[in-house]
Amino acid sequence: MSLTTTNQCQVRTNVRCSLVSFPIKLDAFQASGCAEKKLGARDLQDIEISGYFPGVVGKITEIHAVYYHENWGFDVSFETEVGKELSEFIGQFDADRDGLWVAKKNGEFAGAIAIDGNNAFTDGVRLRWFIVVREFQKSGIGKELILRAIDFCKYKRYPKVYLWTFEGLTKARRLYEAVNFRLCKEDEVAQWGQNIKEQKFELE
Question: For residue 170, which of 70, 129, 154, 200 sits 20 to 30 Å off, Cα-Cα?
């Protein structure tokens, strides 16, 4: 895995785009969301969207662990699972197959999303580790991240895109449905120290 710096992608919006790690062709990077967009949200000023940077695995894991423990009572098994699977994803990252987008506002971590393309043409690609820090929610950052991920999947012509979540994340579900994800499966499970209704959404 290379950590060489690539050139910034010049755009005429208030969102600055840079991919600071994984080498990727410029046209593919543009298709993943660095192409010009009409964002229209005042709060998206001073937002930078980048890829991997040192410490990002720990940061994404920490934000997930704290949020889901404080709001849903998830135990240590959730944090260790996120950390383990995210570490494996980054360690095996293939820029021609996978995607990682990290948002910062004024240099502060604001959110992240990933596309895991490991089983792209069998089970489908999985949208993973989507989160926006509480103070940046309702700013448009979440929508911007998810649109970039979907654009990347369309550019790659992936036949199936899905995500796993659970019942109760109402705001996230509204966003998923707004970009044409539809609920396709539900199961009651005992997981991460809680009983939850796990939900699978697929992109139409």
Answer: 154
The answer for residues whose C-beta is within 8 angstroms of residue 8's C-beta and 6 or more apart is 16, 17, 18
148, 32 contact by CB (below 8 A)? yes
Q: What is the pTM of this model?
A: 0.80
Tokens of 82: 């996120």
- In contact, 57 and 92? CB cutoff 8 Å: no
* CA-based R_g, the chain, Å: 16
Residues 117 and 154: their CA atoms lie apart, in Å, by 12
Is there a contact between 69 and 78 (Cβ–Cβ < 8 Å)? yes
Q: At what angle do helices 76-91 and 56-72 cross, to 10 degrees?
A: 150
Residue 58 has a pLDDT of 97
